[in-house]
Automatic annotation (TrEMBL), chain A:
Region named Disordered: 1-23
Organism: Nonomuraea glycinis
Protein name: Spermidine/putrescine import ATP-binding protein PotA
Organism phylogeny: Bacteria, Bacillati, Actinomycetota, Actinomycetes, Streptosporangiales
Family: Belongs to the ABC transporter superfamily. Spermidine/putrescine importer (TC 3.A.1.11.1) family.
NCBIfam families: potA (TIGR01187)
From TrEMBL, chain B:
Name of the protein this chain belongs to: ABC transporter permease
Keyword Transmembrane helix set for record: yes
Domain ABC transmembrane type-1 residues, every copy: 56-258
Compartment(s): Cell membrane
Residues that span the membrane, as ranges: 56-78, 90-114, 134-159, 195-218, 239-260
Top-level taxon of origin: Bacteria
Topology versus the membrane: Multi-pass membrane protein
Sorted UniProt keywords: Cell membrane, Membrane, Transmembrane, Transmembrane helix, Transport
Main location as per UniProt: membrane
GO biological process: transmembrane transport
């Protein structure tokens, strides 16, 4: 077991005070398994020190491969990865000093809870008393004090993942990599552990890179989200940015519900006819998207779509379209109306509160929204 | 397995097997034991006749050598089997099983031809300048042939155990700071111990009582326990002494199985291991 001197010092150093996070920089990273398309295709991404970055995307989008590249479990086909400015592209995983959390917990079944947590410290030749102190400290952090001598098989899934979390942070790694760590847990436990992971991120202050395909989880946890699609990053931004200002149709559809209207050839004039209705596009929105092509689409979130009984109830300057209620979904605090919009009967959704009255299938109404609420995205 | 409680109503299903066991195992065993203690001085003779203890010790050493050799060959082989494609795994499995399916006699006669004076192995050694290597009729030759005969009993339980180990645990160990070598010794090896124990027990106990190979390939001057037993029953007709010797071998075997069970391997009735990590209740 050989360690570079600085990481040994870091692992054995005093744990008082917040360790400053590590910057992770991916520069034109590619991973090609020789299949039809590269698993990760020329990705550049900078994860700021102490940031909670989520790699979000459908399965097969390259997010897990990217995490494994950062961890060193996979080798790069092209590009480079740097931790705090130091190129680690050729450094084997055990010298990268990164914590890793797996979906299946990956606890060592032949070791007790305390031995599991002590494992990375033993590998770093930390003294016995120091190990005991740190293990007790981190087990308290994950609220598992007193379970030291249990074997992993004696713990519930949630407890096992907390042991894995303790093991992954006890050696104060440069960053923590989390590979769908909550995927195997039920809904209530997920939400409890999300809260716990956020708290631990605040308390240890190091960089977290979290992989998930669950957009709600990503929105809930992250400082920023990198949305993956087909081995590329579709968009990087805060959850609010990705939700409110999607740049591509994929982003708009992946995060939350959206109404999508494809634009025709003439649509980029400020005022065009659309499906027989008035179609207003906010000039600021057009100006913000100089590259918008004719194949672009307009995206409106369901909560931004209002309904009115008739044309007279729609404010001036709003986009309005006649619509028929096709279905009503009861969602508890609100209802979702599934609409057939315009002459072509385009599918649309809107949210209405019970205060707005009752709607039934077949009701004719007018759906409208303000131009400011719609986004133009590349299709 | 222990969580499956057997219903009382299913006990009658065991009656045929228990009757068979009583008839062909328990009764003869008791008979052998009674014969061995009814004649005076059988057990003290074993200790003092100067031959038995020598042969017993030689047998234990030979069985241990065979076991270690089978483990050293079988472990990497079983490991390789878990790492290759299903197709290649099938081929590797058949390579293990073909000798297993072949008659033990055929294999031993093959070894005689290979190891005999002027045979290919001796010629090979002679080619490299070692002229006086004698394998046929020696303990070394017996050990080599027995290792080959015993190899499937090592490979099969190892394969089933190694294949069940979650490879992601090795990734986890790498991520936590272990070099590939450290990850193997600290994670993979301890988790494979159940299979190692099962293979070691099977090979060692089978080797202790193995008759055919030592009888055909060994020499009377370097005989093993099974030969001694055969001699005492078929030539000397000294059933008391033979029974006592059999009892000693049985006790050695049982002690070994008990020790292995404590070490974490659980040997089930058919000798295949249920490799489970130790659990405290």
């Amino acid at each position: 077991m050989t360690m570079t001197p600085d990481t040994t010092a870091k692992a054995t150093g005093p744990s008082t005070g917040t360790p400053s996070g590590t910057e992770i920089r991916l520069d034109r990273v590619t991973k090609d398994y020789g299949l039809a398309a590269p698993a990760v295709d020329d990705i550049s991404l900078t994860i700021e020190p102490g940031e909670f970055m989520t790699l979000l995307g459908p399965s097969g989008s390259g997010k897990t491969t990217t995490l494994n590249l950062i961890a060193g479990f996979e080798t790069l086909t092209a590009g480079s990865i740097a931790l705090n400015g130091t190129d680690v592209s050729d450094v084997p995983p055990h010298r990268r000093n990164l914590g890793m959390l797996f979906q299946n917990y990956a606890l060592f079944p032949h070791l007790t809870v305390a031995q599991n947590v002590a494992y990375p410290l033993r590998e770093r030749k930390v003294g016995k008393r120091e190990i005991a102190r740190k293990v007790a400290e981190v087990l308290e952090l994950v609220q598992l004090t007193g379970r030291d001598d249990n074997h992993p098989s004696q713990l519930s899934g949630g407890q096992q993942q907390r042991v894995a979390l303790a093991r992954a942070i006890v050696f104060e790694p440069e960053a923590l990599l989390l590979d769908e760590p909550l995927g195997a847990l039920d809904r209530n436990l997920r939400s409890a552990l999300q809260t716990e992971i956020r708290r631990i991120h605040r308390e240890v202050g190091s960089t977290f890179v979290f992989v998930t395909h669950d957009q709600e989880e990503a929105m809930n946890l992250s400082d920023r989200i990198a949305l993956f699609n087909n081995g590329r990053i579709e968009q990087v931004g805060t959850p609010q940015q990705l939700y409110a200002e999607p740049e591509t149709l994929f982003t708009a559809k992946f995060l939350g519900d959206s109404n999508v209207f494809e634009l025709g050839e003439a649509a980029l004039d400020a005022n065009v006819a659309w499906d027989g209705e008035s179609w207003v596009i906010d000039p600021a929105t057009v100006a913000a998207h100089p590259g918008v092509r004719a194949s672009s689409a307009v995206v409106v979130r369901p909560e931004d779509v209002e309904v009115a009984g008739g044309r007279d109830d729609v404010p001036a300057g709003a986009n309005a379209v006649r619509a028929t209620v096709r279905d009503v979904e009861y969602m508890g605090s609100y209802r979702t109306l599934l609409l057939a919009m315009g002459e072509r009967g385009l599918p649309g959704r809107t949210r209405v509160s019970p205060l707005q009255g009752e709607y039934a299938i077949g009701d004719d109404l007018v759906a409208w929204w303000r131009p400011q609420a719609q986004r133009i995205v590349a299709a | 397995m222990s969580s499956n409680k057997i219903k009382w109503s299913s006990w009658p299903l065991l009656v045929p097997a228990l009757a068979l066991l009583a008839g062909i195992l328990l009764v003869p065993l008791a008979d052998t034991f009674i014969r061995s203690v009814s004649a005076p001085g059988t057990y003290t003779n074993l200790l003092t006749d100067g031959v038995t203890m020598t042969v017993l010790w030689r047998t234990v050493v030979t069985a241990a050598t065979v076991t270690v050799a089978a483990l050293l060959i079988g472990y990497p082989y079983a490991y390789l089997m878990t790492r290759v494609s299903p197709r290649a795994r099938g081929i590797l499995l058949v390579i293990v099983l073909i000798p297993f399916w072949t008659s033990v006699m055929a294999r031993n006669f093959a070894w005689i031809i290979i190891l005999q004076d002027g045979g290919p192995v001796q010629s090979l050694f002679a080619f490299f300048g070692a002229e006086d290597v004698v394998l046929y009729g020696s303990t070394a030759g017996v050990t080599i042939a027995m290792t080959q005969v015993m190899l499937p009993f090592m490979v099969l339980p190892l394969f089933s155990t190694l294949g069940g180990i979650d490879r992601r645990l090795l990734l986890a160990a790498r991520g936590l700071g272990s070099s590939p070598t450290a990850a193997f010794w600290k994670v993979f090896w301890p988790l494979s111990r159940g299979g190692v124990m099962a293979g070691v027990i099977l090979v060692f106990t089978l080797s202790l009582g193995f008759y055919v190979t030592p009888a055909l390939l060994g020499s009377p001057q370097e005989s093993l326990v099974a030969q001694l037993l055969a001699q005492r029953t078929t030539l000397l007709l000294d059933f008391a002494a033979a029974g006592a010797l059999g009892m000693v071998v049985l006790v050695v075997t049982l002690v070994l199985v008990a020790w292995a069970n404590r070490m974490g391997g659980t040997v089930s009735a058919i000798g295949v291991v249920a490799a489970s990590p130790p659990k405290d209740r």
